Amino acid sequence: MTLTDKFLELHKHLENNPDVETQIKCLIENAPQSSESDGLRALMYHEGIGYPADLDKCFELAERATEGGDPLGYFLLGFMCDNAETPDQEHGGPRQKYDHYDAERFYAGCAGIESVWRPYAVLWLGDYYFDSAQGGDPEIAVEYLESIAEDNSEAAGRLSDYYWDLIMPLYIEDDEWRAQLFKWTSVAARLSPEDYSYRMGWLYADGLGCEKSFEKSFDFFQEAFLNGDKKGAEAIAKIYEEYLEETPELSDTEKMKCRKEIDYWKNLSNVDNPASVKGEC
Q: Is the peptide bond before 52 cis (omega within 30 degrees of 0)?
């Protein structure tokens, strides 16, 4: 177990156990001096853990940590540059070393090293390059986010949002965009079903990046509804209406069943707590 692992294991209990702060301080002070311990001590000074909050001391230690290639040191310098916390900015003096223009390179330094801190840097860089007023290069944003998105719901969600915005509301017929929309929405729905099941339902309902499927769209809309999104019930009623309209060969019995489902799901869309009807769906 690395020093960072031990630090984070203790940190999980910090809020509920005041003695943990002392344990963390002892852990770091008794550890051999290294770029990793410098980075963790910098974080402690930034957050006031075991020491009074001191941005100057944080900056000094974070800078020293980066000399040894510590990813947390890079992350903290990026964060401080981005939030005007470097010493020269905080005290209102002239630019000496770093300011907000330097945030990107420090976050990039963190993103280039495999660590627990890397996803946070990558997410910042994704936002930075998506923002036309800052980095202004969506291709770079996508490249960063794709590097972690298979296991990171936020990154997968941002990629889904990006391709959704490219395609909608005009239903742009770009096969590559549609394929990427389906791919990353699928990942986002797996990692964060409460946020992206509804969108997956529409992808299957409209055949965006996939074969159109009433059954799969129904499943995802129902999952969205059971996760608290009432729009899921409204969407199910709508796909039943479309199915009824597009399938005139249905028997009278099947048509009657569809109408009952439409009424049922329209009624459920007015339920205040969708999760309360989970057993009925």
A: no
